[in-house]
Amino acid sequence: MDGDGDTAAGAAGAARDVPEGARERRGPRAPWIVGVSGASGTPYAAAVLRALLAAGESVDLVVSRAARLTLLDETGAAVRDAHWREDLARWLARGADGRPDAFAPGPDLAAVRYWPAGDLAAGPSSGSYPARGMLIVPASTACVAGVALGLSKDLLQRAASVTLKERRPLVVAVRETPLSGQTLRQLTALADAGAVVLPASPAFYAGGTTAQDLVDFVAGRVLDAAGVPHRLYRRWTGELGGASSDAGGAGPAEG
Predict the structure, then answer these.
(1) 38 labelled as ligand-binding?
(2) Which fold has domain 14-244?
(3) Is 221 annotated as a binding residue?
(4) Measured between alpha carbons, how far is residue 194 from residues 110, 112, 186, 229, 239 in Å?
């Protein structure tokens, strides 16, 4: 596969500038693996991808077969193995409100490597492949079950299993409601195995007023769990009412 360079530019827009603390990547390439499953919520994945690239991180992208259908349904965008770069550029330029040029020009994709979901011989299928960890955004209940049971039916599930066995960070942004008892038990199993279970639950204390604000909050929490710096949402500073003023911070912490 091509596109495995280490250079990445920030996402477009003043609110999406390169965050403080973003590192200049040197030495062997060690990407974050981003898995996109078939759950509704593909704008979450786009926001995470843009922010990772803005932070100077390398990315290995795996899009499941079901996710391609969801992406087509939610955005009208396709992801084709032979044309993934141009398809990904169109996807990342689209905002959560459906505007096709909300983030135009989009991020530089030189730091992205794409792996077809059916390629079980791909780099991320092996524990010896250097990776920083994996973010599954969004994670469907079927994906959760497959990873919890160690099925490895496709590259997304296999890469997640490898991430767990190698004790690397795994963030699972589950997007489903309501949750059945079976799924709750599987999520508990993933948490016990070391994964961070992060429901895609937008919060309102950060002062979000648009769909993109709410999407960015969830994406920001995913990156917080991974330890990646970003500027996707206003953080809580200990001052009530901050969400309604330009000078304030995010609202009360969850808990």
Answers:
(1) yes
(2) Rossmann fold (3.40.50)
(3) yes
(4) 31, 26, 13, 21, 33
The C-alpha atoms of residue 254 and residue 108 are separated, in whole angstroms, by 34
Q: Binding residue per annotation — 205?
A: yes
Judge if the upstream peptide bond of residue 107 is cis by omega within 30 degrees of 0: no
What are the structural domain ranges in the chain?
Answer: 14-244
Q: How far apart are CA 193 and CA 238, in angstroms?
A: 33
For residue range 4-56, list pLDDT tens digits in order: 433 333 333 333 455 655 555 557 899 999 999 999 999 999 999 999 999 99
Tell me whether residue 39 is annotated as binding.
Answer: yes
Handedness of CA 163, 167, 171, 176 (dihedral sign): positive
Residue written as token pair 């994670």: 139
pLDDT tens, residue by residue, 162-196: 999 999 999 999 999 999 999 999 999 999 999 99
pLDDT, tens digit (0-9, with 9 covering 90-100), for 71-96: 999 998 899 999 999 999 999 999 99
State how far the Cα of 143 lies from the Cα of 171, in Å rounded to an integer.
13
